[in-house]
């Protein structure tokens, strides 16, 4: 129960600065570990999975966030290709997913992120994919690589809104990740995160400590069932599912919640 924890509170400037510094140092530390293991040929996918969860848990502990997961998670190891399409309203969306969902999850990242010193190289070594939509030849190569990664068991995370929502409301979707889903015959798992925008709202440094955050997992959607109906129909279906997950009053009877999770 949430009332077993201290009430949420706003972080002061010093705490915000310390959390920011710690976040950079923690991220740098894990990036160096990934690169070091890669350099000696000992970087394994399972090791990266552990790193992403540990990194995420470390960042979330700095904020005192109280996570819980709701809904049934599919078996990501059943041999099918999976994509997690998730709401995006905070920097902490991705750590929340890494902590609460199983499997070898990798973020579909913007190519610009790979230019960040150390971190970008670590992301590349850790099998984080990207799709270059500005270069057709490179985009085709990236798409083939993404499909290969998914066939090998990697679950791709993507934000169909493209950018973070500043008010927690669902923004218009972009078509990129839906094209990828259809071109790879992926199973889409819609996810909505409630309360995360209050932890660290987009576009600012207003950090709120001890916030309850709920990760809601929806029923999987087979993208191959929308081949004839088209990408717009697929986008509409995913959007409707996400809206239901975000708004309890619009959703059907809720799935039983798992026990609250403390970032490991």
Automatic annotation (TrEMBL):
Gene Ontology biological process terms from the UniProt entry: phosphatidic acid biosynthetic process
- Metabolic or biological pathway: Lipid metabolism
Q: Name one Pfam family in it.
A: Acyltransferase
Q: Which CDD domains match?
A: LPLAT_AGPAT-like
Report the residue ranges that make up the Phospholipid/glycerol acyltransferase domain in this protein: 82-196
Keywords per UniProt: Acyltransferase, Transferase
Q: Which SUPFAM superfamilies match?
A: Glycerol-3-phosphate (1)-acyltransferase
InterPro entries, sorted:
Plipid/glycerol_acylTrfase (IPR002123)
Q: Which domain of life is it from?
A: Bacteria
Gene Ontology molecular function: 1-acylglycerol-3-phosphate O-acyltransferase activity
Q: Does the record bear Acetylation in its keywords? A: no
This chain belongs to which protein, by name? 1-acyl-sn-glycerol-3-phosphate acyltransferase
Q: Which organism is it from?
A: Pseudomonas nitroreducens
Lineage start: Bacteria, Pseudomonadati, Pseudomonadota, Gammaproteobacteria, Pseudomonadales
